[in-house]
Fold:
Amino acid sequence: MTASLPAFAGRTYVFRVDNGAAFRNTYSADGARLRWEGLGESAGQWEDVRLHVAEIAPGIYFVSWTEQSGITVSHVMDLNALTVRAFWTFEGEGGRVGQLHTGTLERVA
Structure:
């Protein structure tokens, strides 16, 4: 039995986060990789990461990855409502810091 491709495979979205950050997220044709690029204040930052993906309901995906810096990102993408609930962790003063955010998606390609 073969798994179907995630609905975001081969597509590009602008992800606008509630903290003002924005990213251009381009997903590989097989849905297994993401190239994120910072926009606005984060312009010039980018990375190509391997994804862990699970469809949790039709059009709703749990997606996670680890960046070279050690930042971990987990988010639930709702492609029906074009929303994201994101949780990321990073090293901060006194240890690991976690942040929960919401955001919107705009399909651009």
Remarks:
- The chain has a mean pLDDT of 96.
- The chain is about 0% helix and 60% strand.
